[in-house]
Design a protein that fits this description.
Elements (H helix, E strand, L loop, with lengths): L11 H20 L12 H6 L11 H11 L12 E2 L8 H13 L9 H16 L7 E5 L2 H16 L9 H13 L3 E6 L5 H8 L7 E4 L9 H13 L3 E8 L11 H11 L2 E5 L24 E5 H4 L7 E5 L4 H6 L33 H36 L3 E6 L4 E6 L6 H17 L4 E7 L2 E7 L7 H25 L12
Parallel strand pairs: 1-11, 3-4, 3-5, 5-6, 6-7
Antiparallel strand pairs: 2-8, 7-8, 9-10, 10-12, 11-12
């Protein structure tokens, strides 16, 4: 006689009823987002609940859900809220959550093997190639985020462009066997000083060294200085170093600046460098005919990263690395062992192995939520949402430009704008204190969630609009709040005199 599996529900009807309740609660929660704070601090009693020890015995799953509902659900990061524009977080398409649920139910790992989940990921990669006007002959891989994509792309570049330690074996075999030390190579990588910090991690992990990531100065629009780039490459060659990779930014995280991608492509080809484009969010502007000229050269790169959980609004996490030439990732990452060898028939006969395209052998079924969302809405709906975000940030920038008490510090052609509160005769440290105070109030009172950065020595509020729930009235609200809080804090500065008020907590 069979016994029930010990970790399956004892009562499937109870399991079914809880699932229905959870879906009902989720729908109510999402429908009422606008009425809630964007963010709120976690109270101490709730914090204390997360310090409880490991449960020795279980509790009813309905009680676990109730604890989630009272201790986790009310205190999120806030990025699903219509007035969240911090950092570069996406807002989450609701139907994609069903994809994540179903992916967990069937619980496939997508390293290798012939099954429908593998085919869904292949199809999603092909759809992204079409959406981004990428060569169909290329290859790709879904990853957790652009950070993993940068590591994977630079590892592929290192193998593809490395001089061979054993020429007869070919570059990939020689380098992978012998490593950089045996070949006597010191690689260098190039990108603007606005390049995302994940590249610092990538060059560290790959043994290139952060000192050999050449952070090239930028112009007044925060784009890479091409003359300085050429000089850096020339100097490194003269010093006996091995220039490896040039990184172009299709939307820097700081300001949304787009490097001259076509010019960088030409330099990479002239210098025989791997050309990698970081399009973590900006690559999806390819969906807009109005923006394709700005991204000219992107689709001819050797590799491209783009985060679907940013400007394609997918739930975390899902990103994509596209490679121009088929087989390049396998050259860098394929491995063999008896327990993963191929067979003549059955699942192990399947010709694609995503584990041979990157680091991970065990891989989540990230593709299903993307498949669900694209099937449900179509790529045109996502293009419309992206166009709306661009228009919303243009509206914000116009409102800032028209205000006497606001200054537009940086504005991209994409979805990023940086601005601050100003007043005549403000000392730089006083202006920074007031803008830090504005950010602190906006965030901690749950009013709105811009983030911050420092540009030209100024502390500024930074808006990155990757939010499909935002509309222009949300930015009108933001402007009104910044002006009201700014006026209040400015008055406190002026009352306090030259020394300024006592320091207060600033934004994160």
């Amino acid at each position: 006689m069979h016994t029930d599996p010990p970790l399956d529900p004892a009562d499937w009807e109870e399991f079914r009823a809880l699932g229905k309740r959870i879906v009902d609660d989720i729908a109510d929660h999402l429908a009422g987002l606008r009425e809630r704070p964007v963010w709120q601090p976690v109270p101490e009693d709730v914090r204390a609940s997360f310090r409880a020890g490991l449960p020795a015995k279980g509790m009813p799953m309905a009680d676990v859900y109730e604890e989630f509902r009272t201790t986790v659900l009310p205190f999120p990061r806030g990025n699903i809220h219509p007035r969240f524009w911090g950092w570069a977080n996406g807002s989450g398409v609701p139907v994609a959550a069903y994809g994540d649920l179903l992916a967990s139910v069937i619980n496939c790992t997508l390293g290798s093997g012939g099954n429908a989940a593998m085919m869904v990921e292949q199809q999603v990669i092909e759809w992204l190639q079409q959406a981004l006007r990428w060569p169909a002959a290329g290859s790709g891989l879904l990853t957790s985020g652009a950070s993993m994509g940068q590591v994977t792309a630079l590892a592929a570049a290192r193998v593809a462009k490395a001089p061979s330690a054993r020429p007869s074996a070919g570059p990939s075999a020689g380098f992978r066997d012998e490593g950089a030390v045996a070949s006597g190579v010191q690689f260098t990588v190039y990108g603007s000083e606005e390049t995302h910090h994940s590249v610092d991690k990538a060059v560290e992990l790959l043994g290139i060294g952060r000192r050999f990531f050449r952070k090239v100065p930028v112009d007044r629009a925060f784009r890479i200085d091409v003359g300085a780039l050429r000089a850096a490459i020339r100097a490194d060659r003269e010093a006996g170093l091995h220039p490896l990779c040039l990184i172009g930014n299709a939307g820097t995280v700081n300001t949304g600046a787009i490097d001259p991608l076509r010019t960088l492509l030409e330099i990479a080809r002239e210098e025989d460098l791997w050309y990698h484009v970081d399009g973590a969010f900006g690559a999806f502007a390819q969906l807009l005919p109005s923006h394709r000229a700005l991204l000219d050269g992107l689709a001819e790169a050797d590799s491209l990263v783009c985060d679907l959980h940013k400007w394609l609004y997918m739930p975390f996490d899902v990103s994509c690395l596209l490679i121009r030439s088929e087989g390049v990732l396998e050259e860098a990452f394929s491995s063999s062992a008896d327990y993963i060898s191929s067979t003549a028939a059955g699942p192990s006969a399947y010709p694609v192995a995503f584990s041979d395209r990157g680091i991970e052998q065990s891989r989540r079924f990230r593709a299903l939520k993307v498949w669900f969302a694209l099937k449900t809405h179509g790529i045109g709906a996502f293009a419309e949402a992206i166009a709306a975000n661009v228009a919303q940030v243009a509206h914000l920038a116009a409102r800032v430009d028209a205000a006497d008490d606001l200054e537009l510090v940086a504005r991209s052609d994409l979805n990023v704008a940086c601005f601050r509160y100003v007043w005549p005769g403000a000392a730089p440290d006083a202006a920074d204190r007031v803008n830090r105070g504005i950010l602190n109030r906006l965030q901690t009172e749950g009013l709105a969630m811009p983030s911050h950065t420092v540009l030209d020595g100024k502390f500024v509020l930074r808006v990155a609009d990757n939010n499909h729930r935002t509309d222009v009235t949300d930015f009108d609200f933001l402007i009104a709040q910044v002006q009201a809080i700014g006026a209040e804090l400015r008055a406190a500065e002026e009352d306090a005199g030259p020394a300024g008020p006592a320091p207060t907590a600033g934004g994160r």
